[in-house]
Specification:
Two copies of one chain form a homodimer.
Chain A (H helix, E strand, L loop, with lengths): L6 H8 L3 H8 L8 H13 L6 H8 L4 E6 L7 H14 L3 E6 L4 H13 L4 E4 L10 H5 L4 E4 L8 E7 L1 H14 L5 E5 L5 H16 L9 E3 L4 H12 L7 E4 L2 H13 L9 E6 L12 E4 L2 H25 L11 E4 L2 E3 L6
Parallel strand pairs in A: 1-2, 1-3, 3-4, 4-5, 5-11, 6-7, 6-8, 8-9, 9-10
Antiparallel strand pairs in A: 10-12
Chain A binds a DNA duplex through helix 2 and helix 4.
DNA sequence: CTGAAAGCGCTTACAG
DNA sequence: CTGAAAGCGCTTACAG
């Protein structure tokens, strides 16, 4: 549309050098006379000057833009994360470019490339669960990467922000145990991810603490879908040793399980106790409102953006000051706590 | 992190000029000898060359990045739109920077500014419903803007993509009429938006066609929330002339209304027919699965990105070719059709 | 207090 | 077929 005015044109009109204009507009104008300053600001205002950040970035080597790579924004798990990221980023004056990969490694690599070319200052990355080994595009990547939700070993990764799934599952299972349930099943969504493994650990730990033996038949591994909740619940109802409670890997599973239980005339939580992992907050909409472990998704995004940007800025400081290799602000994995939300108490 | 190699360095190593390297790497290399070409590609590969798009953009005046401004990605209405936008954008080789405004005009203006500074090629904008009049930041904006979901008159706007709410409401109401319902209420979420007005028009039109007089008491205006659905349903049940069906402004309202009806021992749809406007696809999770008007949200984002990018590219073509004022690809409002999803048929 | 100059990494006429 | 040169809009030492 309209062409923007440049500092060169402002300089001409103000009868000063472009250096002076640049300094004034960047508030590095301690040494500039009040008169010049006013004149320049007036002209900038008049023509509605907007700086060309491309030109600036070319010199400063910072774009104040970060990338967010997630599987799918439509998956209700991710909007809160995305929102957390954007909130923190904009607090710091950063923008975020967001990318959907559908968990496809090819698309992940493509986006890492695109973001690198766009010179983003950093990337927040929720990678595919299939991504098992070190991968070229990550190794080659010239941009700092921070992992969320799922863990992954890689030297280019400057940090990780994940949910404390072990603790959450422990809380969920302990809650059921506290209410007197003893035959607690676990319907897992999958077991290949660190997420799922953490939850299994927590479940086992809670049982172990009370010296309740783990019944392998009580652990059903499938996928994070409503239909799987229905099926798994059906399987559990046909076990020789009847169950009295279920810890569900996520809330879609929980909804499915409840549907099945009701079909069979069982009441929740009077007959069968249920706690779900509240991936996507839907559980609160089904009846009976379900007791769940709330995932700190918003916090995850927020924290991730904070860590990433702090690292970015520290890296830059170090480069400017000492030109030596810099130490990261925080290199280790951050575990975010979950919360037990009791919506309807069992027994 | 690692510094990227530049075309200058490639040129040195290959013993050619940077112009040659640039041409080869940009596939404008028809005139370059096969040997030089191969040599250059080999070196680029070897050092894992990634172009600096800042530098390129500075010259070409295109960033291949568009902005997406929405109220809140956590609102389940928007992820599908965002996904549609990103899908189409990445098809065209564009990235998208996304921004949450919480419907605050101040934040909208801030983001329009930020995006302008970042030199995005265009902006897709779902503006606040409170934004009634022409507004400075939009007028001043140097970037083409395309509006989605909500309409707004402004000369800087190159187009609009909205849902055909009138048609949708007409379908919903007609469906209920076809099933024999005659006392059809309408629980609206609000009436200030063009969205809500369109729906009211469709409702009125359907009734008018069958020569059924509109009963003002049957139209309840509130907000797009579950609780309002509960309240409005309660009000409707106390009307002198009893209703036999409800058209709900969105699915949160529908869920609330159903909850109330059930509480009063009424069956849906046997006693009271219900059709909701399926803003957020949640309706399918409540029982009984609800008949709804499906919003083409994904399509809205997809179409919007397509129109915007086509306009951007046309604008550029025209500038290169004739340097004259260009005609927009499509300036008018695009109405996207809704779809009636019958999940449980009434009567 | 201010300016002249170099340069960020690239593209694009233009010349040969 | 290839190179020298100008320039995109800005920042940053350095000099005065």
């Amino acid at each position: 549309m309209k062409k923007s005015i440049t500092i060169k044109e402002i300089a001409e009109e103000a009868q000063v050098s472009i250096a002076t204009v640049s300094m004034v507009l960047n508030k590095k104008d301690k040494k500039i006379s009040e008169a010049t300053r006013k004149k320049i600001h007036a002209i900038a205002q008049k023509y509605n000057y907007t700086p060309n950040t491309m030109a600036r970035s070319l010199i400063t080597r910072q774009t104040r833009t970060i990338g967010l790579i997630i599987p799918d924004i439509v998956n209700p798990f991710f909007p809160e994360i995305a929102r957390g990221v954007e909130d923190k980023a904009s607090e710091f004056g950063y923008s975020v470019i967001y990318c959907n990969t559908d968990d496809k490694i090819k698309r992940e690599d493509k986006y890492i490339n695109v973001l690198t070319e766009k010179m983003v200052d950093g990337i927040i990355f929720a990678h595919s669960s299939d991504r098992q080994l070190g991968f070229d595009s990550l190794d080659k990547c010239k941009v700092p990467i921070l992992l969320i939700d799922r863990d992954y070993e890689n030297r280019n990764v400057i940090g990780r922000v994940v949910v404390d799934n072990r603790e959450g599952a422990y809380m969920a299972t302990s809650y059921l145990l506290d209410r007197g349930y003893r035959k607690i099943a676990y319907i897992a969504g999958s077991i290949t991810t660190t997420t799922a493994r953490g939850r299994l650990e927590g479940y086992n730990q809670a049982l172990a603490e009370r010296e309740i033996p783990v019944n392998e038949h009580y652990i059903k591994v499938g996928e994070y879908k409503l239909q799987w909740g229905v099926e798994a619940a059906d399987q559990l109802l046909h076990e020789k040793e009847p169950i009295d409670a279920i810890f569900c890997g996520n809330d879609l599973i929980a909804i499915g399980a409840i549907r099945k239980l009701k079909e069979c005339g069982l009441r929740v939580p009077e007959d069968i106790g249920i706690v779900g992992f509240d991936d996507i907050y839907l559980a609160s909409l089904v009846e009976p409102p379900l007791t769940t472990i709330k995932q700190p998704n918003y916090e995850m995004g927020y924290k991730a953006a904070e860590l990433l940007i702090k690292n970015i800025e520290k890296l830059r400081q170090d480069k400017i000051k000492h030109e030596n290799n810099s130490v990261l602000v925080e290199k280790n994995t951050v575990f975010l706590p979950t919360e037990l939300i009791v919506r309807r108490s069992a027994k």
